[in-house]
Amino acid sequence: MGIGLGVFFLALGAILVWAVTGEVEGVDLTLAGVILMVAGAVSLLWGLVASTTLPWHDDDRPSSRVRTRDRV
After folding, report:
1. What confidence tier does 64 reach under pLDDT thresholds 50, 70, 90?
2. Quick check: is 38 in a domain?
3. What does pTM read for this prediction?
4. Where are the alpha helices (DSSP H) in 1-72?
């Protein structure tokens, strides 16, 4: 899960908690919204932490520079 999915879950959960007034038999929409918002917050935080703290080495990516040797 990443940042985009976290924002989506947060928005969907907020809609279920505060905007939906209908009822579904056997489902508590407020609780489902809260669960989605918690999952979205965790996903958003994980995405932010992973994008800023995980080591990304230049050695892992192919180089776009052409390396040549001089022939003697």
Report:
1. low
2. yes
3. 0.70
4. 3-14, 29-53
Locate 11 and state its tokens. Answer: 């928005």
Does residue 60 form part of some domain? Answer: no
In a domain, 72, yes or no: no
Q: Is 24:58 a contact under the CB 8 Å cutoff? A: no
CA atoms within 13 A on the CB side of 3: 6
- Give the total number of structural domains in the chain: 1
For 13, the domain range is 3-19+28-52
Distance CA 28, CA 9 (A): 17
Torsion angle of the four alpha carbons 25, 28, 32, 34, in this order, in degrees rounded to the nearest 10: 160
Q: Is 27 helix (H, G, I), strand (E, B) or coil?
A: strand
Residue 67, in any domain of the structure: no
The Cα–Cα gap between 30 and 35 comes to 9
